[in-house]
Specification:
heterotrimer, A mainly alpha (290), B alpha/beta (259), C mainly alpha (356), A: 290 residues, mainly alpha, two-stranded antiparallel ribbon, 12 helices, 73% helix, B: 259 residues, alpha/beta, six-stranded mixed sheet, 9 helices, 39% helix, 23% strand, globular
Chain lengths: 290, 259, 356
């Protein structure tokens, strides 16, 4: 196989794995922002919390990696309900600025708490044997973990797709994103719906946080460092759009990976440039409502 | 003499919904015209098209004979097209006086000044107070808008538009939301507007319409249903049918939805 | 006759001749507007405090200069956030551009004269503000947040991309600047730098104060309060916003330039998201849209950070987060807003019934 094809396949493979991580972590943010117009800068903190819970469960309690992911997702989902009911709810009608400040404040507190308990050094996580090592495809071998990420991502996308497009709750969510007042007037309990999606979105973020450990290592700065990426995925994809979030995650995942393969010095320059261009042309993102 | 405002074949659609359809109407200088029609007829949309909040899908708007269809809302305003809003759009955290000065400052360019203290130009303040005087708002000049009762806020809404020294004034339900005990204050102001200003008023209260207007345009489902003098409209059976029919229709729908 | 006077028809109703009481009411109204902008003695306090610091804490003046730089930076944000209501997460972009203008000027071009460096920083940052503002300020809400944020990070990445020229994340250490005005050498205790920063701050503050109290500043407040009405009364809203964004960018650039000059080094971390967030936090804690909020907020933040982060940086970060949450929930107008509330409470108690 020629060299450029190998590179292209590698970029696609790693980019896809990265995109799955971005999608899983950002999709909840997109739906909650679309539903309530709430700017949640603490979303990265929920992801980080999920990551640290996985670290504790695997390292301290010896629970397997995959069960830990599930437990972390459920725990963070539950905790997020407390935040949503106790704090976020008060600010749905507040200005962008106040939402930004409240959630930056929460993110700071989360980072400090994580630093206190886990220290600033990046953590790793013990993986089961089947996720270690590589899958050899002849011309090149790929890390099994990334393959796992891609499979898991596709599975989750299918489930979410089904839930969003085919179930009753999904239809209600779409209706509420589209026109909140109308949805309320036909008897949809938007508040409850929001709590549910918020919890689900935070749980997915926690899952993403757990999955990220093996990719990037986990340190307290994760909450802010990757938040910018999640926000970009959401804004570029369009608020409240599953399709848009997926497309944005793919574009950004593949382009960022490609940039790192081909022109490492550029760092993240390309994705920011692309973000700016996309938003200037389509301020509401790929699939957002203008 | 060129008309103050001319609207020609104006269309606007949101998706498949045509909210404004082939509207053509003319406001002569000093006109007193009422725009009436059942709920959802597209009256506010028409005002938004005329003032430039919305762009028409097709058609033209002429102000004093000049085509302003492509111009921004702000440029239209500076050329003498003023409006009030159905729901108050005021600077709630500022005093009444400052609300008026804002409009005067934008009109005469004072608001481009970065160096002078706001309020240091006496002519602006004097003019603002003249406007307030004429609407009997002087006593409230230094109060914050958000502290005023709703009826007085509606007056400020009109005062700002008048401070623009408009040649065409669009009043979107000026007395909406005001208790009937106070609404006469607002209607007096409307009735005593400068006779040179062309005024288009959207109003539901037929007494007000017949008292104020010299001509009436009836809008139904985005299109001009008919227009004429109050007498003609009053005696028009079709208008009655539309009004009563529509209201009856609405009532049935309302009953159906809740029942 | 009455053609251009919409009130003409009305004067028949209202007494046409103004009596003495009416004239007095007019004078009072004019006086009210002008008096809000008049210099008050309380305004001297922060400046006197700055001068007192020079004499009382001669060994902390290096830190003092840093505080003054952040006051200037927060002031630039107050102009757009507090007055015009533009929520940005990328003000660090202009701080960084200013910082690198003098940094690169000194390191690569040998432009080591400090005061002209400030002017250069102002113009370069203002130009960047004008260009980006022209495109960005059409948008609001999340789109604007993302665009400003992405702009700042893109500047950082661009700096990293050209690291041979910019020095990358290692920065440009050991910059040497000419003596101030060709006369004052930089001493070990930072006395020169402190006075330099204070004078620059005072000059910029004077200009900002004129702007916010001018009719133009009033129009900005109008845009913040009700942008729909501003369009309706003919205000060129986009142009106004671009103008103030450009000025604020220039001021942030001056702050960045001062930062580089007083530290004699600069790295790409000036473009960090944390830098944009930090200055916003300072401003919010002090109180937006009230000039001295930037002063108080930046000073209090810097002093607390200096003190607490010595004890425990983690504790400090948690505390500042908690403070933000509490500020949003209970003190939306910042520390100065709280003072004003107390002040208003007491004056009300004192003079019940006395109306202006």
């Amino acid at each position: 196989m020629p060299q450029f094809a190998i590179i292209a396949v590698s970029i696609l493979f790693d980019g896809l794995a990265y995109a799955m991580f971005l999608f899983i972590t950002s999709v909840g943010l997109s739906v909650t922002m679309g539903l309530m117009g709430f700017v949640n800068l603490a979303h990265g903190a929920f992801a980080m919390a999920g990551g640290y819970i996985v670290v504790s469960l695997t390292r301290d309690l010896g629970i397997g990696f995959v069960p830990s992911l599930l437990i972390a997702a459920v725990l963070v989902g539950l905790i997020s309900v407390v935040f949503e009911r106790g704090l976020y709810r008060r600010l749905y009608k507040a200005t962008d600025l106040e939402q930004v400040l409240l959630t930056i404040g929460l993110a700071f507190m989360a980072i400090a708490t994580a630093t206190y308990f886990y220290g600033p050094i990046p953590k790793s996580v013990p993986l089961p044997l089947w996720l270690q090592g590589d899958i050899n495809l002849g011309f090149r071998s790929f890390p099994s973990y990334r393959a796992f990420l891609i499979v898991l991502g596709i599975a989750l996308i299918s489930v979410l797709w089904y839930a969003f497009e085919r179930t009753n709750i999904g239809a209600k969510i779409r209706a509420a994103v589209d026109n909140r007042r109308m949805a309320e007037s036909v008897g949809i309990n938007v508040d409850l719906l929001f709590t549910l999606t918020f919890a689900l979105g935070s749980a997915l973020a926690a899952l993403g946080g757990g999955l990220a450990i093996q990719l990037f290592g986990l340190s307290p700065s994760f909450a802010v460092l990757y938040l910018v990426l999640f926000l970009i995925v959401v804004a570029v994809g369009g608020l409240g759009s599953l399709k848009g979030t997926l497309l944005a995650a793919l574009v950004i995942g593949v382009i960022d990976t490609g940039g790192k393969y081909l022109y490492a010095e550029a760092g993240g320059f390309f994705i920011y440039a692309i973000t700016i261009v996309v938003l200037l042309i389509k301020p509401a993102g790929f699939y957002g409502r203008e | 003499m060129t008309a103050a405002l001319q609207v020609q074949d104006l269309n606007r659609s949101f998706g498949a919904l045509n909210v404004t359809r082939d509207v053509t109407m003319t406001l002569e200088r000093g006109a007193r015209c009422a725009l009436i029609g059942p709920n959802g007829a597209g009256k506010t949309t028409l005002v938004n098209l005329i003032t430039g909040v919305l762009r028409p899908s097709s058609g033209t708007v002429l102000l004093n004979g000049e085509d302003i269809t492509a111009l921004s809302q702000a440029v239209r305003a500076r050329r003498g097209l003023a409006r009030t809003f159905q729901i108050n759009q005021l600077f709630r955290g500022l005093s009444v006086l400052e609300n008026i000065c804002m409009a005067i400052g934008e009109r005469d360019g004072e608001n481009n000044n970065m160096w002078r203290s706001a309020g240091a130009k006496r002519s602006v303040i004097d003019e603002a107070l003249d406007h307030l005087d004429s609407l009997r708002l002087v006593d409230d000049a230094l109060r914050l808008v958000r502290e005023l009762p709703y009826g007085r806020q509606r007056l400020v809404e009109i005062a700002i538009a008048l401070a623009q020294k408009p040649r065409v004034l669009l009043l979107d339900e000026p007395a909406a939301g005001v208790p009937s005990s106070e609404s006469h204050l607002i209607l007096d102001v409307v009735a005593n507007l400068d006779p040179d200003i062309a005024v288009l008023i959207i109003e539901h209260d037929m007494d007000v319409v017949f008292r104020f207007a010299r001509e009436i345009v009836v809008l139904v489902q985005g299109a001009v249903f008919t227009q004429g003098t109050p007498k003609e409209i009053m005696s028009n059976e079709d208008v009655r049918a539309v009004y009563l029919g529509q209201e009856g229709h609405d009532a049935v729908q309302r009953g159906g939805r809740h029942g | 006759m009455a053609a251009n006077d919409p009130t003409g028809a009305q004067s028949a109703i209202v007494t046409p001749v103004r009596d003495a009481a009416a004239t007095a009411a007019r004078d009072r109204a004019a006086e009210y507007l002008v008096s809000r902008h008049r210099f008050r003695w309380a305004e001297a306090l922060p400046w006197l405090a700055c001068i007192a610091v020079f004499f009382l804490f001669p060994d902390r003046l290096t830190f003092g200069s840093q505080v003054l730089v952040m006051v200037l930076f927060a002031l630039s944000l107050d102009l757009i956030l507090g007055y015009a209501g533009i929520v940005t997460l990328g003000q660090a972009a202009f701080f960084g551009i200013g910082a690198y203008t003098v940094g690169l000027g000194a390191a690569r071009l040998g432009w080591t004269e400090p005061v002209s460096g400030l002017f250069a920083a102002f113009f370069v940052a203002a130009l960047a503000g004008f260009i980006s503002g022209w495109f960005l300020l059409r948008y609001r809400g999340l789109t604007l947040l993302m665009l400003t944020l992405a702009t700042a990070i893109m500047m950082q990445e661009a700096g990293n991309l050209g690291s041979e020229f910019s020095g990358g994340y290692d920065g440009l250490p050991g910059l040497v600047f000419d003596p101030l005005l060709g006369r004052f050498e930089y001493d070990l205790y930072g006395r020169t730098n402190y006075v330099y920063a204070l004078v620059v701050l005072a000059v910029v503050f004077y200009f900002v104060r004129r702007i916010v109290y001018s009719p133009f500043g009033q129009a900005l407040t109008g845009i913040r309060e009700n942008v729909r009405r501003m369009h309706a009364i003919g205000s060129p809203v986009h142009w106004r916003l671009v103008t103030v964004y450009t000025i604020a960018a220039g001021i942030a650039g001056v702050a960045g330039a001062l930062f580089t000059q007083t530290n004699a080094y600069v790295t790409l971390t000036v473009f960090d998201f944390e830098n944009s967030a930090k200055v916003m936090v300072m401003l919010i804690l002090g109180g937006t849209g009230r000039l001295y909020g930037a002063f108080l907020g930046a000073a209090v933040y810097m002093i607390m950070e200096d003190y607490f982060s010595k004890l425990s940086p983690t504790f400090w970060q948690f505390g500042i987060g908690l403070l933000l949450v509490l500020a949003v929930l209970f003190a939306r107008r910042g520390v100065l807003g709280l003072f004003e509330q107390f002040g208003a409470y007491f004056t009300k108690e004192k003079s019940k019934g006395a109306k202006p």
